[in-house]
Amino acid sequence: MGKKIDKVFFEGAIPATFLAEVIDKHRTKTGIGAHNIFMGQVRADEMDGKEVAAIEFSSYTSMAHEKLSEIREAAFEKYPLHCLHIYHSLGRVNAGEICFVVFASAERRKMIYQATEEIVNRVKSEVPIFGKEIFADESHAWKVNTD
User: Which of 25, 60, 101, 120 is a good FRET partner for 37, with 20 to 30 A between their CA atoms?
Assistant: First the structure.
């Protein structure tokens, strides 16, 4: 399972046990009434008759941290969030494993869905994180982000 590298990145898959710990730590924050968690999982897509076995993620990490900081600041300015955590995998993540998490918390639920969707979309489109799809036969192709 994945190993936390820094505040954002994991080497490999993001473990479910880590996510459980993040959720558990928020029990003491009693002003929060709503959490929304987006989890991106590697799909075993089929492309040109080949099945995706994994994605190998890489990043310009210093640029990624800078851009993630901008996204976080903008989210806190636009939405009344209490907490916002963004995690992403680097390295190989197998099909079925978690590679991307956005965890947002607020006093009330109404706006948390919109905030989470906006944050996810901005991370996917603006942050220099790249995925190379690894097929079962170990051939590969660069991943193109879709909705």
Answer: 60
